[in-house]
Amino acid sequence: MMVEQEFFCTYLKQLVDSGLCYDLQMISNGFIKPSVLPDLKIDITELIRCCMNCEHKD
Hints:
Elements: E1 6-9, E2 14-17, H1 18-28, H2 44-52
Antiparallel strand pairs: 1-2
Helix pairs in contact: 1-2
């Protein structure tokens, strides 16, 4: 069984698993639409700022 890594997300201000971190990065880069995460109201400008400065970005 593989355990996902957790990271502190400065955008959400909480720990997130690597899958959500990846999805947020893909949204900030314009590769996927924010609608893939319907439970989150995403401020794209703030997300981009946070992801650009993230130490966990790919």
